[in-house]
Every structure is written in structure tokens, then in C-alpha cells.
Design brief:
This protein is mainly α and 202 residues long. Helices cover 50% and strands 9% of the residues. A two-stranded antiparallel sheet has the order 1-2. A two-stranded antiparallel sheet has the order 3-4. Strand 3 and strand 4 form a beta hairpin. Helix 1 packs across helix 4. The radius of gyration is 28 Å and the shape is flat.
């Protein structure tokens, strides 16, 4: 899955977190930002490592469940020390969404398109070397590869639909109108000669 799909999935996860907290839409800095960083983090770690010759594939250590366990372990330590660790928990959730999306997206693409692995060992690091074995179908449904995967198309469309549905919640509060705009304050004198105030329609 490409970055736009991972970001869309992170947005949907943020909406779910907001709903679980009793709010309609996610907050940018407190929720969406750590989710988006986590949703891109595996590629930000593994792809540069592959280009530098440190990894033998573009899906390496940060695409492994062990990476998630390390992040959760760090969160647990911070939690025991009383340090606020909610951003780290959301970042970890973003990493999980990335790994799950790549796993499901690969299986769907392997069923539909040629020269695409249905499943491989990229998620088994460090126990099994990445891409030691892979399953690829001889006959795919479509004879060509698409520039965007079907799962990514669905995820992006769902994120846009949710954002459109929640668009009204991004508007600010309505301006407060004066309670009696058609009334003016007038002054006259009471029978005793002292001034008195009352409202009269203009």
C-alpha cells in the first residue's frame, strides 16, 4: 500500500479513537499526528535501511510484529513510571494499521494481479529472513497491474466519505446574535419628575 492509503487508514483510526472518547472528530495534534507518524513509520525505517544496504528487502525490521512488541514494551515502561504515553500508544496503533494493511493488501493484490506475491515471509523477521519463501499465483484475475491497489482505493474512498460526513463539525461556533435587536432604550420622566428607563420597539 502506498503512503496515501496508510494516511487514510490512520485517519479512520483517529475517527474511531475520537468516537471511543465521546467526540465526533479526531484532534489533529493529539491523535491524528501520532497515528499518521505511526502509519508511515515502517516505511520510513525499512526503505532507507534497504537503500543503505542494511536490509535485504524493503519490508524489514519495522514491518515485523517484534517492532510492535518493542513499542508496546516502551509504552508499558512509561506507563509504570507515570509518564504520559498516550501519543506512543497511538503511534503504535498506527504501526499496527500499517502492518495489517500491507498483509491484507498483498493478499488481495496477489489474487488479482500478476507478478505479485500472495504472501511472503516479510513479517517473520528476525526469525526467518524476509522473502525466504513466497506464494504467487500462476493465473491472476487481471492481466495487468494497477497503479493503486484495490484495498487502498477502498480505504481512501472511505476516509474521504467520513471526512465529508464530518465536514460540518469543522465549522466554528455560530455567532451570538443580540437578544433584542429591534428594541432601543428610551428615557422619559415619571409623573414624579424622576427619569425612568424602559424598552420600546423602534
Amino acid at each position: 500500500m502506498y503512503p496515501v492509503g496508510h494516511l487514510a487508514l490512520g485517519y479512520l483510526a483517529g475517527v474511531g479513537v475520537a468516537r471511543a472518547s465521546g467526540r465526533t472528530r479526531p484532534r489533529l495534534r493529539q491523535e491524528l499526528l501520532p497515528l499518521w507518524i505511526g502509519a508511515l513509520l515502517p516505511d520510513l525505517v525499512d526503505k532507507p535501511a534497504y537503500l543503505l544496504g542494511l536490509a535485504d528487502a524493503t519490508r524489514w525490521a519495522a514491518h515485523s510484529p517484534l517492532f510492535v512488541l518493542l513499542l508496546w514494551g516502551l509504552w508499558f515502561i512509561l506507563h509504570l513510571r507515570g509518564t504520559p504515553a498516550r501519543p506512543l500508544a497511538l503511534l503504535t496503533l498506527g504501526v499496527i494499521s500499517h502492518q495489517a494493511a500491507d498483509l491484507v493488501d498483498g493478499a488481495v493484490s496477489g489474487l488479482l494481479f500478476p507478478d505479485t506475491n500472495l504472501i511472503s515471509t516479510w513479517f517473520t523477521w528476525p526469525f526467518i529472513a524476509t522473502d525466504t519463501w513466497a506464494v504467487e499465483l500462476d493465473s491472476a484475475i487481471f492481466p495487468f497491474k494497477a497503479p493503486i491497489t484495490p484495498l487502498e482505493l477502498v480505504v481512501v474512498a472511505a476516509a474521504l466519505a467520513v471526512a465529508w460526513h464530518l465536514r460540518g463539525n469543522f465549522r466554528g461556533p455560530p455567532r451570538e446574535q443580540p437578544r433584542n435587536p429591534d428594541h432601543t432604550l428610551t428615557r422619559d420622566r415619571s409623573p414624579g419628575g424622576r427619569p425612568s428607563s424602559h424598552l420600546s420597539s423602534s
